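User: Fold this, then the next.

Assistant: Folding the first:
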Amino acid sequence: MTNGNKRGYIYRMKGGRELKYSEQIEGFLDFLRESKMDYNIAVSTEKDANDKTQDLLHSLELYENTYHEYARAAKKLAKVRQERREAKDKREQLQSVMDWLEENDRVIHGLERLLGNVRKAEKAAEGRFYMQRTDVLAEIGKEDMS
């Protein structure tokens, strides 16, 4: 969900509050990290399903099975192929993100540095206070209001 402010900037909302700039940058970097993990899991799951498919097909080809064993193998094969399809779809959907990550390694490092700098500026703004430089406020109370 997004919400615009008076200046036209768009802030992402989370739990009814505006996200800090650092949280928005961090969210994008988290997305990239999670995408990479999801991609690797999908590749591994697809390979595992391919191996299971080969085991089942070779079992059907090489061994004498009863009618019920064939039926159970066919049901298992259908389930394994469905798992493979889901993993393959996810891998294909994330492939463009992985390609972009590989091509933009320097950009990612730049975003990580940017996140650190923005966090530092946000922290400095949180603890900010003002120290009076003159006695002008004390003088106001001493002046005659005539």
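Now the next one, as you asked:
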Amino acid sequence: MTQENVQSETQDETNAAAEATSPAQEDALAAAQAEAASLKDQLLRQMAETENVRRRLEREKQDAGAYAVTSFARDILAVADNLRRALDAVPEAARADQAVANVITGIEMTEREVFNVFNKYGIAQVEAMGQKLDPNKHQAMLEIPTNEVEPGTVVQVLQTGFVIKDRLLRPALVAVAKAADATPGSSVDTNA
């Protein structure tokens, strides 16, 4: 036999063997392909889940760093409030006395330092005076009848509010304007 005949016979045998695959072998091949596809799908889902967990943990880490001082800051707000009350409590007549003036200067410097530390950690005062009542930043404590400003406008700040970064630390306690000619028992619509 020539080499050509040998190759032809070998190829014929290979083709015959390929054509003679049994249905059981085809089923096994299909099952293996389905299992491979299923495992690939599971792998892709696990990779996506791992990436989501990584992103969530990174975000939580950033939040923890940014807002770690929240509890401490709330406690220090009372100190800042008391410094302001101390300054407001000194009568004008007493301010002329040099000893009292020195104490006032010391309290003012301490208050400035507290606010410098607040700024360092992203703590800022909530703007309230003259603003429309914002229930996300202000807490209305009372209404004052007046026609000088639009109803629902903050006319007095009873306690300063603060935010840390973009979160509310403490709402501003405010008094809002209501129409002076309003009938008793009516309230101002502050949702406008």
